[in-house]
Amino acid sequence: MKIKLYLDQTTTKIQGHPLGLAVYISKTDRSYSFTGYYSIIDMDKLDLETEEPKNTHPQHFEIMDFLLEKRRIILQIQNNREVLTAKQAVSKIMNTRDKSSESIYSFWEIRIDEVKKAKKKDENVTFYSSYLSAWKSYKPQILFSEIDYNFLTKFKNYKLQDISPNKVDAYYSGCL
Question: How far apart are CA 116 and CA 97, in angstroms?
């Protein structure tokens, strides 16, 4: 995985030249996106070798703060050796992930609202709501990334104290 923050000198916008983010995983999995930051090219104010603004650059602190923060995230990704697609890496670096979309609770709450708004008589809403409350009683927040075999085994052992094994299986199918 190769990740690079660079100054795109080939593209000129009103604000200046955009700072880009290049993520290369393979020939078929790569992404080139803009960060939303721009810089003027002025040989006195920009170090083209390091692609960083000099102290005299009008946006020096803003751009350097941004670059240092993103470089830290890039180093974390590379040190963790996470297996990510280019799109996932860009999303993680640019913090564009919607934190609420990572929660199974928000996912099911949105689904329940959709069914209610459709004004269909759907008995699944009752089941979804009861399953959701069972999961919430187990843990106040569950992210999709937390769910693995060990997590499900702990949940099953927790619920077996109160209910039958068949009901635990229904919670699995109802919420996951």
Answer: 27
Can you tell me the distance from the alpha carbon of 163 to that of 116, in angstroms, rounded to the nearest whole number?
28
Position 136: which residue type? K
Q: Which residue has the tokens 């769910």?
A: 147
User: pTM value?
Assistant: 0.49
127-136 in b/e form (b: 16+ CB < 10 A) is: ebeebbebbe
Residue 23 to residue 89: CA distance in whole angstroms: 7
pLDDT tens figures, 70-103? 888 888 888 887 777 888 888 888 875 444 456 7
